[in-house]
Amino acid sequence: MTNLFSYDGLIYKAGTKVFQLMILNLLYLITCLPLVTIGAANTALTAVTMKMIEGKTGHVAIDYLRAFKTNFKLATYYHLIFTMINLLVLLNYLFAGIVAIPIRPLVYLALGLASLISLVGMAFIFPYIARFDDNGITTAKNASLLVLRHGKISLLILIVTLLLIVLAMLTPVMMVFAIYLSTFIGFALIAYLKSFLLLSIYQQYQSK
Question: SS3 for the chain, per residue?
């Protein structure tokens, strides 16, 4: 029983991990507030959660701010691209109703495909930036190749990414629960779970 509460005990380690995730979640929410910084915030969050899993973290707040600053330019560049794509999809969806009925299903299909590509891009580009130091074109190319090469794991990553959204859509009560969870630890917890899957891919190439 004593070992459970020691510095090397399970309870102490679990409590420390939860506390670190809560700090990361708070930092993430704060750095997302300008909206234009969401890409850099996603990148920094994933960078630190991957380090946590590998046991390479010093102080999570310092590591987060360092990763945020280091990857800000490229992450913001891609965030703006995805924002433009999503806005165009939304605008086209709003006006799709006036398209002639025979081709309307094709329009909705094209918009759905564009939304899926954007969602996959957001789920995998920012973690790649957090892990590798490549230019913009190489980042997009390699991230796409990894998604195609590791389809099953990529699907799991996408499912984990959408967990909070799916949870919120189930019932009004679950929506409230998802909001509370997101406020205190949810975003960091999702990033932490995703990082296990991402590392299973990335470490195959970094070990070579």
Answer: CHHHHCCCCHHHHHHHHHHHHHHHHHHHHHHHCCCCCHHHHHHHHHHHHHHHHHCCCCCHHHHHHHHHHHCHHHHHHHHHHHHHHHHHHHHHHHHHHHCCHHHHHHHHHHHHHHHHHHHHHHHHHHHHHHHCCCCHHHHHHHHHHHHHHCHHHHHHHHHHHCHHHHHHHHCHHHHHHHHHHHHHHHHHHHHHHHHHHHHHHHHHHHCC
